[in-house]
Amino acid sequence: MVSQATIAITGVLQVMGISFFVNQPNNQCSPAPSLGAYLFLLAILFLLWDGDVIPKRYKKSSPRLFAFVEILATVFITELIMLIGWCGYERMAFKTASMICRQSEWCEYGLLIIITILGALITMCIVAEVVCPVKMKDTMGGILEGMPIPLCAGPVIDHIQDIRSYVMGAVFFSQLTRVQRFQAIRAFQMQLRRPRVPNQESQKPMWQEDPDEQTIGLQQGMELEEQQEAELEA
Fold it and tell me: Where do the TM regions start and end (predicted)?
């Protein structure tokens, strides 16, 4: 986990509008209020706090140098996400609101507020899914299941679930070792090479498959790793 001091320093710098690696925009990213940006910043800081920007094994050699580099890396990542990612999102939302409302100020401002705050809340929900403990997620899941969801919101919910899957996949993939990453990539390749229309025999659950077949991907991943290491040594 990134230290609390690093998270606090990064958050204060962003709130004060101080940046070292990415230039601040000459004007605001959009006329939208700062609430959406602050919620998005809070979600990003929670995500960075839960992970390791720099592997902890380097901390033993030089704790002070590790703390300094950790602050620089965290500030750099946060500036990229906020000043390029979120600012670009706000500008796109502003252009979309301008096209829809057609020079109606109250409509444009209201739609911009909805788009920015909704995007920030979706990001916070995705980060909470990754960061929060299992018991808390089960409790929140039970509450959300009891809430009525209109039929027209089905595509929106599906899109949120897709984004959640992509974020969780990226987080889990980054936590794997080098060998495990090769094994995962090999497993994905084998899954894509399967027929598009599987027959009845291939529709068996994973727990009913032959254990020997399940280990083929792992063995091939190990062989691929050994070949690449041999090529590097040569």
Answer: 7-23, 35-53, 65-89, 109-131
